[in-house]
Write a structure and sequence with these properties.
α2 runs parallel beside α3. The model has no long low-confidence stretch (mean pLDDT 89). The protein has two domains: 30 residues; 325 residues, Endonuclease/exonuclease/phosphatase (Deoxyribonuclease I, Chain A, 4-Layer Sandwich), CATH 3.60.10. The protein has a seven-stranded mixed beta sheet with strand order 1-6-7-8-9-13-10, with helices on one face. The chain has a six-stranded mixed beta sheet with strand order 4-5-3-2-15-14. The chain is of the alpha+beta class. It starts with a helix and ends with a strand. The chain is globular.
């Protein structure tokens, strides 16, 4: 009997050492990138570009969260109440990213703002998605690292693993400056679930003026305790935009807000959003005077930009809403903004396309 108890004690001690060692690893390896990181010149664009943008023409921009290449329409994710912790396979990642790039190539916007682009992650089988995008589009590129997470040993049987992921901005115009800005995140244990967060700024000189068009690429927090951090992040973003606008620059911010951009998605799409911290509406006073929140809604044919990944996508049954869109400064005129209906075929998000002009 003593041998049994001794064996159990040894097993318990070993478990404590393993768990303690893992927790120590998570805490020791966790880090956040500092604020105000300037990007380097882009060596991928092969053709010479005019140094300034012709601001007299209409411009198209698309924002799209590609969901690290995992979310085919039948995919569900464990942190949303589903079953999967990784993409189905490397082949599935390549197929989903390829589908998205086909859509983007067909739309051919002047600018693309892409989120959840993995470069070396367990969940996407270490496919360098940023490289795939660079190879497809001969454009100016700015990749801003969002997070570099330690190995998450959960779920136990198929761990989510480590994730290296970021925001990718592509431009048909010359980007004169690139800047990564850190966003506030939750403290304590929740920081290990939401990881690092940032937005990027890409500066484009406007022909015949001393002004710049500044493209903001963003992906606000989702997995938080009550959604207030995403509100603080939005306040910081708007303060930055307002400062640039008051300096005379044109500002266009696009991405995944992880908030209800329409403000009434539940009513528009006939769903119940109660209890979803990432689906709270954007309060009117969060977007200050001088900036405009763009409603990407076709009243006659409303298309959601996001689905809840608690199960496979079922049209008319799955919880859907619009969390992706744009904020622009008052010197930018929006001509059109709509969600492109891809039926969530390759991501849990649909792309959103906006046409705009710069006021003289």
């Amino acid at each position: 009997m003593k041998k049994v108890w001794k064996g159990l004690a040894i097993l318990l001690a070993a478990a404590v050492v393993v768990v303690g060692g893992y927790l120590a690893y998570v805490f020791i390896t966790y880090y956040r990138l500092p604020d105000m990181i300037y990007g380097v010149n882009d060596e991928y664009y092969k053709d010479a570009l005019p140094p300034e943008l012709d601001g007299r023409r209409s411009l198209d921009i698309v924002t799209w969260n590609l969901g690290f290449g995992a979310y085919s329409a039948d995919y569900s994710f464990f942190m949303d109440g589903g079953t999967e912790s990784r993409a189905y396979s490397k082949e599935a990642v390549l197929k989903n990213i390829g589908h998205a790039l086909d859509v983007l190539e067909a739309e051919s916007p002047d600018f693309m703002l892409l989120q959840e682009i993995d470069t070396n992650s367990t969940r996407s089988y270490h496919v360098n998605e940023a490289e795939l995008i660079r190879e497809r589009f001969d454009r100016q590129v700015y990749f801003a690292q969002n997070y570099d997470s330690p190995y998450l040993f959960y779920p136990i049987l198929r761990p989510h693993g480590a994730s290296l992921s970021g925001l990718m901005t592509l431009s048909d115009e010359y980007i004169s400056k690139r800047l990564r800005r850190s966003l506030p995140i939750e403290s304590g244990f929740m920081k290990f679930l939401d990881l690092d967060r940032c937005y990027s700024k890409s500066y484009i000189e406007v022909e015949g003026t001393d002004r710049q068009l500044i493209l903001y690429n963003l992906h606000l927090s989702a997995y938080t305790s009550d959604g207030t951090i995403a509100t603080e992040q939005l306040k910081l973003l708007c303060a930055d935009m307002l400062e640039e606008y008051r300096s005379g620059n044109y500002c266009v911010a696009g991405g995944d807000f992880n908030k209800d951009v329409l403000g009434n998605s539940g009513e528009v799409f006939g769903v119940n959003l109660d209890g979803l911290t990432w689906a709270q509406p954007i309060e009117a006073d969060l977007v200050p005077e001088g900036l405009q929140l763009v409603r990407s809604l076709d009243a006659d044919n409303p298309v959601p930009s996001c689905r809840n990944a608690d199960g496979p996508y079922v049209p008319g049954e799955s919880l859907v809403l619009t969390v992706d869109g744009f904020i622009v400064s008052d010197n930018v005129t929006v001509e059109d903004c709509r969600v492109i209906d891809e039926g969530f075929a390759c991501s849990d998000h649909n792309p959103v396309k906006m046409t705009f002009t710069l006021n003289e």
